Protein backbone atom coordinates (compact mmCIF):
# COMPACT_ATOMS: atom_id res chain seq x y z
CA UNK A 1 0.00 0.00 0.00
CA UNK A 2 0.94 3.64 0.02
CA UNK A 3 1.98 3.92 3.66
CA UNK A 4 3.81 7.20 3.94
CA UNK A 5 4.30 7.31 7.71
CA UNK A 6 4.53 3.77 9.12
CA UNK A 7 6.70 3.74 12.23
CA UNK A 8 7.92 0.45 13.67
CA UNK A 9 10.81 -1.09 15.53
CA UNK A 10 13.77 -0.51 13.27
CA UNK A 11 17.04 -2.28 12.75
CA UNK A 12 19.08 -3.05 9.69
CA UNK A 13 17.34 -5.43 7.33
CA UNK A 14 18.93 -8.78 6.64
CA UNK A 15 19.65 -9.50 2.99
CA UNK A 16 19.66 -13.19 2.16
CA UNK A 17 20.45 -14.98 -1.05
CA UNK A 18 18.68 -18.33 -0.81
CA UNK A 19 17.12 -19.22 -4.16
CA UNK A 20 13.61 -20.59 -4.53
CA UNK A 21 11.37 -21.28 -7.50
CA UNK A 22 8.30 -19.13 -8.17
CA UNK A 23 5.04 -20.97 -8.58
CA UNK A 24 1.57 -20.09 -9.79
CA UNK A 25 -0.58 -17.57 -7.96
CA UNK A 26 -2.51 -20.28 -6.12
CA UNK A 27 0.55 -21.91 -4.60
CA UNK A 28 0.56 -21.99 -0.81
CA UNK A 29 3.48 -20.74 1.27
CA UNK A 30 3.04 -23.44 3.87
CA UNK A 31 5.26 -26.18 5.16
CA UNK A 32 4.99 -29.84 4.42
CA UNK A 33 5.75 -30.41 8.09
CA UNK A 34 3.10 -30.63 10.77
CA UNK A 35 1.17 -27.41 11.45
CA UNK A 36 1.44 -25.68 14.83
CA UNK A 37 -0.67 -27.20 17.57
CA UNK A 38 -4.11 -25.59 17.51
CA UNK A 39 -5.95 -24.79 20.73
CA UNK A 40 -9.51 -23.84 21.52
CA UNK A 41 -8.50 -20.33 22.55
CA UNK A 42 -8.63 -17.43 20.08
CA UNK A 43 -5.48 -16.99 18.03
CA UNK A 44 -3.34 -14.22 19.48
CA UNK A 45 -2.40 -11.54 16.95
CA UNK A 46 0.50 -9.09 17.00
CA UNK A 47 0.67 -6.33 14.39
CA UNK A 48 4.14 -4.87 13.83
CA UNK A 49 3.66 -1.20 12.89
CA UNK A 50 0.90 1.22 13.85
CA UNK A 51 0.62 3.97 11.23
CA UNK A 52 -1.23 3.77 7.90
CA UNK A 53 -1.02 0.05 7.19
CA UNK A 54 -0.92 -0.86 10.86
CA UNK A 55 -4.19 0.99 11.35
CA UNK A 56 -5.78 -0.62 8.28
CA UNK A 57 -4.81 -4.11 9.46
CA UNK A 58 -5.87 -3.32 13.04
CA UNK A 59 -9.31 -2.31 11.80
CA UNK A 60 -9.53 -5.63 9.98
CA UNK A 61 -8.62 -7.68 13.06
CA UNK A 62 -11.18 -5.72 15.10
CA UNK A 63 -14.00 -6.52 12.64
CA UNK A 64 -13.20 -9.91 11.18
CA UNK A 65 -15.07 -12.06 13.71
CA UNK A 66 -18.20 -9.91 13.46
CA UNK A 67 -18.53 -10.27 9.69
CA UNK A 68 -16.90 -13.68 9.20
CA UNK A 69 -18.10 -15.72 12.20
CA UNK A 70 -17.18 -18.97 10.46
CA UNK A 71 -13.41 -18.36 10.71
CA UNK A 72 -11.27 -19.05 13.79
CA UNK A 73 -11.54 -16.43 16.49
CA UNK A 74 -8.68 -13.93 16.72
CA UNK A 75 -7.59 -11.87 19.72
CA UNK A 76 -5.98 -8.44 19.32
CA UNK A 77 -3.15 -9.14 21.73
CA UNK A 78 -0.27 -6.76 20.97
CA UNK A 79 0.48 -3.73 18.82
CA UNK A 80 4.19 -3.13 18.26
CA UNK A 81 6.08 0.09 17.51
CA UNK A 82 9.33 1.69 18.59
CA UNK A 83 7.77 4.81 20.18
CA UNK A 84 6.14 3.65 23.41
CA UNK A 85 3.80 6.61 23.91
CA UNK A 86 2.64 6.75 20.30
CA UNK A 87 2.06 3.01 20.03
CA UNK A 88 0.09 3.08 23.28
CA UNK A 89 -2.11 5.87 21.94
CA UNK A 90 -2.71 3.90 18.74
CA UNK A 91 -3.48 0.74 20.73
CA UNK A 92 -6.06 2.60 22.82
CA UNK A 93 -7.70 3.99 19.69
CA UNK A 94 -7.73 0.72 17.80
CA UNK A 95 -8.68 -1.72 20.55
CA UNK A 96 -5.45 -3.61 21.28
CA UNK A 97 -4.98 -5.28 24.67
CA UNK A 98 -1.31 -4.37 25.00
CA UNK A 99 1.76 -2.94 23.33
CA UNK A 100 5.45 -3.68 22.84
CA UNK A 101 8.39 -1.68 21.56
CA UNK A 102 10.57 -4.59 20.38
CA UNK A 103 9.15 -7.06 17.88
CA UNK A 104 11.72 -9.69 18.91
CA UNK A 105 10.13 -9.99 22.36
CA UNK A 106 6.76 -10.68 20.75
CA UNK A 107 8.11 -13.63 18.78
CA UNK A 108 9.11 -15.38 22.02
CA UNK A 109 5.61 -15.26 23.50
CA UNK A 110 3.38 -18.35 23.52
CA UNK A 111 0.21 -16.25 23.45
CA UNK A 112 1.11 -14.83 20.02
CA UNK A 113 0.11 -17.13 17.17
CA UNK A 114 -0.10 -14.66 14.28
CA UNK A 115 2.45 -11.99 13.35
CA UNK A 116 1.18 -9.33 10.93
CA UNK A 117 4.06 -7.35 9.42
CA UNK A 118 3.17 -3.72 8.55
CA UNK A 119 6.60 -2.10 8.76
CA UNK A 120 8.45 -0.16 6.06
CA UNK A 121 9.70 -2.48 3.32
CA UNK A 122 13.33 -2.63 4.40
CA UNK A 123 12.28 -4.43 7.60
CA UNK A 124 10.01 -7.00 5.99
CA UNK A 125 12.68 -9.61 5.36
CA UNK A 126 14.23 -9.50 8.83
CA UNK A 127 10.97 -9.49 10.79
CA UNK A 128 9.24 -12.05 8.58
CA UNK A 129 12.18 -14.44 8.56
CA UNK A 130 12.39 -14.35 12.36
CA UNK A 131 8.64 -14.88 12.73
CA UNK A 132 8.70 -17.87 10.39
CA UNK A 133 11.62 -19.40 12.28
CA UNK A 134 9.66 -18.90 15.50
CA UNK A 135 6.87 -21.02 14.01
CA UNK A 136 4.30 -18.23 13.83
CA UNK A 137 1.59 -17.79 11.23
CA UNK A 138 2.71 -14.74 9.24
CA UNK A 139 0.80 -12.17 7.20
CA UNK A 140 3.01 -9.62 5.42
CA UNK A 141 1.74 -6.39 3.90
CA UNK A 142 3.04 -5.99 0.36
CA UNK A 143 5.71 -5.88 -0.92
CA UNK A 144 7.07 -9.16 0.37
CA UNK A 145 10.54 -7.59 0.61
CA UNK A 146 12.72 -5.03 -1.15
CA UNK A 147 14.79 -7.37 -3.33
CA UNK A 148 14.48 -10.60 -5.27
CA UNK A 149 17.13 -12.23 -3.05
CA UNK A 150 15.16 -11.40 0.11
CA UNK A 151 11.94 -12.70 -1.45
CA UNK A 152 13.64 -15.95 -2.44
CA UNK A 153 14.88 -16.41 1.11
CA UNK A 154 11.39 -15.83 2.51
CA UNK A 155 9.83 -18.32 0.09
CA UNK A 156 12.32 -20.94 1.26
CA UNK A 157 11.76 -20.09 4.93
CA UNK A 158 7.99 -20.31 4.55
CA UNK A 159 8.35 -23.78 3.05
CA UNK A 160 10.30 -24.89 6.14
CA UNK A 161 8.02 -23.24 8.69
CA UNK A 162 5.08 -25.02 10.36
CA UNK A 163 3.01 -21.83 10.17
CA UNK A 164 0.84 -20.45 7.40
CA UNK A 165 2.41 -17.59 5.42
CA UNK A 166 0.43 -15.13 3.30
CA UNK A 167 1.18 -11.89 1.46
CA UNK A 168 -1.26 -9.00 1.80
CA UNK A 169 -2.32 -7.89 -1.67
CA UNK A 170 -5.65 -6.58 -0.44
CA UNK A 171 -7.01 -5.65 -3.87
CA UNK A 172 -7.58 -9.34 -4.55
CA UNK A 173 -10.52 -8.88 -2.14
CA UNK A 174 -12.18 -6.05 -4.07
CA UNK A 175 -15.43 -7.79 -5.12
CA UNK A 176 -15.36 -6.27 -8.62
CA UNK A 177 -11.81 -7.52 -9.25
CA UNK A 178 -12.61 -10.96 -7.86
CA UNK A 179 -15.62 -11.02 -10.20
CA UNK A 180 -13.42 -9.95 -13.11
CA UNK A 181 -11.16 -12.93 -12.42
CA UNK A 182 -14.18 -15.25 -12.45
CA UNK A 183 -15.38 -13.83 -15.78
CA UNK A 184 -11.91 -14.22 -17.31
CA UNK A 185 -11.71 -17.83 -16.12
CA UNK A 186 -15.16 -18.50 -17.58
CA UNK A 187 -14.03 -17.21 -20.96
CA UNK A 188 -16.60 -14.41 -21.00
CA UNK A 189 -14.31 -12.04 -22.92
CA UNK A 190 -12.50 -14.69 -24.96
CA UNK A 191 -8.74 -14.95 -25.20
CA UNK A 192 -7.06 -11.93 -23.67
CA UNK A 193 -4.64 -10.23 -26.03
CA UNK A 194 -3.78 -6.89 -24.45
CA UNK A 195 -4.06 -5.17 -21.08
CA UNK A 196 -3.73 -1.57 -19.90
CA UNK A 197 -2.66 -1.01 -16.30
CA UNK A 198 -2.27 2.35 -14.60
CA UNK A 199 -2.07 3.35 -10.96
CA UNK A 200 -1.93 7.11 -10.47
CA UNK A 201 -1.83 9.27 -7.34
CA UNK A 202 -0.87 12.89 -6.71
CA UNK A 203 0.33 13.11 -3.10
CA UNK A 204 3.82 14.08 -4.32
CA UNK A 205 2.76 16.47 -7.09
CA UNK A 206 3.68 19.46 -4.91
CA UNK A 207 7.49 19.93 -5.09
CA UNK A 208 7.39 21.18 -1.50
CA UNK A 209 5.79 18.01 -0.17
CA UNK A 210 8.14 16.84 2.62
CA UNK A 211 10.50 13.91 2.61
CA UNK A 212 9.29 10.55 3.87
CA UNK A 213 10.87 7.12 4.13
CA UNK A 214 8.99 6.31 0.91
CA UNK A 215 11.45 8.57 -0.95
CA UNK A 216 14.64 6.99 0.38
CA UNK A 217 15.89 3.93 -1.51
CA UNK A 218 17.56 2.47 1.57
CA UNK A 219 14.19 2.15 3.34
CA UNK A 220 11.67 1.90 0.49
CA UNK A 221 13.69 -0.22 -1.94
CA UNK A 222 12.11 1.63 -4.84
CA UNK A 223 9.62 4.44 -5.38
CA UNK A 224 6.26 4.30 -7.07
CA UNK A 225 7.31 1.17 -8.96
CA UNK A 226 7.36 -0.90 -5.77
CA UNK A 227 4.63 1.04 -4.01
CA UNK A 228 1.91 1.11 -6.68
CA UNK A 229 3.45 -0.95 -9.47
CA UNK A 230 3.48 -4.03 -7.26
CA UNK A 231 -0.32 -3.85 -6.94
CA UNK A 232 -0.77 -3.48 -10.69
CA UNK A 233 1.57 -6.35 -11.55
CA UNK A 234 -0.04 -8.62 -8.97
CA UNK A 235 -3.46 -7.87 -10.43
CA UNK A 236 -2.18 -8.76 -13.89
CA UNK A 237 -0.89 -12.11 -12.60
CA UNK A 238 -4.08 -12.67 -10.59
CA UNK A 239 -6.49 -11.89 -13.43
CA UNK A 240 -4.59 -13.69 -16.18
CA UNK A 241 -3.45 -16.70 -14.17
CA UNK A 242 0.07 -16.39 -15.60
CA UNK A 243 3.22 -14.41 -14.92
CA UNK A 244 5.06 -11.70 -16.80
CA UNK A 245 8.17 -13.16 -18.45
CA UNK A 246 9.71 -10.16 -20.24
CA UNK A 247 9.60 -6.39 -19.78
CA UNK A 248 10.95 -3.13 -21.10
CA UNK A 249 10.72 -0.13 -18.81
CA UNK A 250 11.61 3.42 -17.91
CA UNK A 251 11.75 5.28 -14.57
CA UNK A 252 11.69 9.01 -13.87
CA UNK A 253 12.23 11.21 -10.81
CA UNK A 254 10.63 14.59 -11.49
CA UNK A 255 11.44 16.19 -8.12
CA UNK A 256 15.03 15.39 -7.19
CA UNK A 257 15.08 17.17 -3.82
CA UNK A 258 12.53 17.73 -1.08
CA UNK A 259 12.48 19.46 2.31
CA UNK A 260 13.60 17.05 5.02
CA UNK A 261 13.79 17.31 8.82
CA UNK A 262 17.36 18.64 8.62
CA UNK A 263 17.14 20.66 5.41
CA UNK A 264 16.93 19.80 1.73
CA UNK A 265 17.30 16.08 1.06
CA UNK A 266 17.88 14.15 -2.16
CA UNK A 267 15.08 11.93 -3.45
CA UNK A 268 16.63 8.58 -4.36
CA UNK A 269 13.65 6.73 -5.86
CA UNK A 270 11.33 7.09 -8.86
CA UNK A 271 8.26 9.35 -9.02
CA UNK A 272 6.82 7.64 -12.11
CA UNK A 273 7.42 4.51 -14.17
CA UNK A 274 6.33 3.07 -17.50
CA UNK A 275 6.72 -0.46 -18.86
CA UNK A 276 5.60 -2.90 -21.50
CA UNK A 277 5.00 -6.36 -20.09
CA UNK A 278 4.89 -9.68 -21.95
CA UNK A 279 3.60 -13.10 -20.88
CA UNK A 280 4.50 -16.51 -22.25
CA UNK A 281 1.06 -16.88 -23.87
CA UNK A 282 1.53 -13.68 -25.85
CA UNK A 283 -0.43 -11.16 -23.79
CA UNK A 284 1.02 -7.65 -23.98
CA UNK A 285 0.32 -5.16 -21.18
CA UNK A 286 1.18 -1.50 -20.78
CA UNK A 287 1.93 -0.23 -17.28
CA UNK A 288 2.01 3.35 -15.99
CA UNK A 289 2.38 4.32 -12.33
CA UNK A 290 2.88 7.74 -10.77
CA UNK A 291 2.67 9.59 -7.47
CA UNK A 292 2.81 12.99 -9.18
CA UNK A 293 -0.29 12.68 -11.41
CA UNK A 294 -2.11 15.85 -10.39
CA UNK A 295 -5.80 15.26 -9.76
CA UNK A 296 -5.66 11.47 -9.50
CA UNK A 297 -6.09 10.41 -5.90
CA UNK A 298 -6.06 6.61 -5.93
CA UNK A 299 -6.78 5.65 -9.51
CA UNK A 300 -5.83 2.07 -10.31
CA UNK A 301 -7.38 1.42 -13.70
CA UNK A 302 -7.30 -2.03 -15.29
CA UNK A 303 -8.52 -2.72 -18.81
CA UNK A 304 -8.54 -6.26 -20.23
CA UNK A 305 -9.16 -6.68 -23.96
CA UNK A 306 -10.13 -10.12 -25.21
CA UNK A 307 -11.19 -11.59 -28.53
CA UNK A 308 -14.90 -11.44 -27.64
CA UNK A 309 -15.15 -8.68 -25.07
CA UNK A 310 -13.44 -6.48 -22.52
CA UNK A 311 -13.42 -5.57 -18.83
CA UNK A 312 -12.63 -2.23 -17.20
CA UNK A 313 -12.14 -1.41 -13.50
CA UNK A 314 -11.30 1.86 -11.73
CA UNK A 315 -10.42 1.77 -8.03
CA UNK A 316 -11.92 5.23 -7.57
CA UNK A 317 -15.25 3.54 -8.45
CA UNK A 318 -14.48 0.23 -6.81
CA UNK A 319 -18.04 -1.12 -6.66
CA UNK A 320 -18.34 -1.06 -10.47
CA UNK A 321 -17.08 -3.34 -13.22
CA UNK A 322 -17.60 -2.48 -16.88
CA UNK A 323 -18.19 -5.47 -19.17
CA UNK A 324 -18.40 -5.39 -22.97
CA UNK A 325 -19.32 -8.51 -24.96
CA UNK A 326 -19.52 -8.39 -28.76
CA UNK A 327 -20.63 -11.68 -30.38
CA UNK A 328 -24.30 -11.73 -31.28
CA UNK A 329 -24.95 -8.31 -29.79
CA UNK A 330 -27.77 -6.20 -31.14
CA UNK A 331 -26.00 -3.31 -32.84
CA UNK A 332 -28.66 -0.93 -31.53
CA UNK A 333 -27.88 -1.73 -27.90
CA UNK A 334 -24.36 -3.11 -28.07
CA UNK A 335 -21.73 -1.54 -25.86
CA UNK A 336 -20.39 -1.45 -22.37
CA UNK A 337 -22.56 -2.49 -19.41
CA UNK A 338 -21.75 -1.28 -15.91
CA UNK A 339 -22.19 -3.99 -13.29
CA UNK A 340 -22.82 -2.74 -9.75
CA UNK A 341 -20.95 -5.39 -7.76
CA UNK A 342 -23.08 -5.28 -4.61
CA UNK A 343 -25.13 -8.51 -4.77
CA UNK A 344 -24.71 -11.52 -2.46
CA UNK A 345 -23.87 -13.63 -5.52
CA UNK A 346 -20.74 -11.52 -6.04
CA UNK A 347 -17.44 -12.48 -4.36
CA UNK A 348 -17.11 -11.40 -0.70
CA UNK A 349 -20.31 -9.32 -0.73
CA UNK A 350 -22.51 -11.78 1.19
CA UNK A 351 -20.44 -11.23 4.37
CA UNK A 352 -21.48 -7.61 4.58
CA UNK A 353 -24.67 -5.60 3.98
CA UNK A 354 -27.99 -6.21 2.22
CA UNK A 355 -27.98 -6.24 -1.59
CA UNK A 356 -27.22 -2.95 -3.25
CA UNK A 357 -25.14 -1.45 -0.44
CA UNK A 358 -21.62 -0.45 -1.46
CA UNK A 359 -18.37 -1.53 0.14
CA UNK A 360 -15.16 0.47 0.61
CA UNK A 361 -11.40 0.17 0.56
CA UNK A 362 -11.23 -0.84 4.23
CA UNK A 363 -13.47 -3.87 3.73
CA UNK A 364 -10.80 -5.56 1.63
CA UNK A 365 -8.51 -5.86 4.64
CA UNK A 366 -11.19 -7.50 6.76
CA UNK A 367 -11.89 -10.01 3.99
CA UNK A 368 -8.14 -10.59 3.71
CA UNK A 369 -7.89 -11.35 7.44
CA UNK A 370 -10.80 -13.77 7.09
CA UNK A 371 -9.12 -15.58 4.19
CA UNK A 372 -5.93 -15.85 6.22
CA UNK A 373 -7.69 -17.27 9.28
CA UNK A 374 -9.57 -19.73 7.08
CA UNK A 375 -6.32 -20.90 5.49
CA UNK A 376 -4.80 -21.42 8.94
CA UNK A 377 -7.76 -23.60 9.90
CA UNK A 378 -8.07 -25.61 6.68
CA UNK A 379 -4.56 -25.69 5.25
CA UNK A 380 -5.96 -24.52 1.91
CA UNK A 381 -3.73 -22.46 -0.42
CA UNK A 382 -3.40 -18.79 0.45
CA UNK A 383 -4.01 -15.79 -1.80
CA UNK A 384 -1.48 -14.28 -2.31
CA UNK A 385 1.37 -16.62 -1.54
CA UNK A 386 4.99 -15.71 -0.92
CA UNK A 387 5.68 -17.26 -4.32
CA UNK A 388 3.30 -14.70 -5.82
CA UNK A 389 5.23 -11.93 -4.09
CA UNK A 390 8.49 -13.25 -5.50
CA UNK A 391 7.00 -13.31 -9.01
CA UNK A 392 5.96 -9.66 -8.65
CA UNK A 393 9.36 -8.62 -7.30
CA UNK A 394 11.08 -10.27 -10.26
CA UNK A 395 8.99 -8.16 -12.63
CA UNK A 396 9.77 -4.95 -10.74
CA UNK A 397 13.49 -5.76 -10.65
CA UNK A 398 13.49 -6.47 -14.38
CA UNK A 399 11.83 -3.10 -15.08
CA UNK A 400 14.59 -1.37 -13.09
CA UNK A 401 17.23 -3.35 -14.97
CA UNK A 402 15.61 -2.45 -18.29
CA UNK A 403 15.61 1.23 -17.35
CA UNK A 404 19.34 1.02 -16.65
CA UNK A 405 19.85 -0.52 -20.08
CA UNK A 406 17.97 2.19 -21.94
CA UNK A 407 14.66 0.35 -22.01
CA UNK A 408 16.03 -2.91 -23.45
CA UNK A 409 13.73 -5.91 -23.31
CA UNK A 410 14.63 -7.89 -20.19
CA UNK A 411 13.62 -11.34 -18.93
CA UNK A 412 12.07 -11.54 -15.47
CA UNK A 413 13.05 -15.09 -14.53
CA UNK A 414 9.39 -16.09 -13.98
From TrEMBL:
Keywords: NAD, Oxidoreductase
UniProt feature, compositional bias: Low complexity: 1-33
Keyword NAD: yes
Record's keyword annotation contains Transmembrane: no
GFO/IDH/MocA-like oxidoreductase domain segment(s): 179-312
Pfam family, any one: GFO_IDH_MocA
Protein name: Gfo/Idh/MocA family oxidoreductase
Organism, as annotated: Ornithinimicrobium ciconiae
MF (Gene Ontology): nucleotide binding; oxidoreductase activity
Stretches assigned to the Gfo/Idh/MocA-like oxidoreductase N-terminal domain: 44-168
Signal peptide positions (record): none
Residues covered by region (Disordered): 1-38
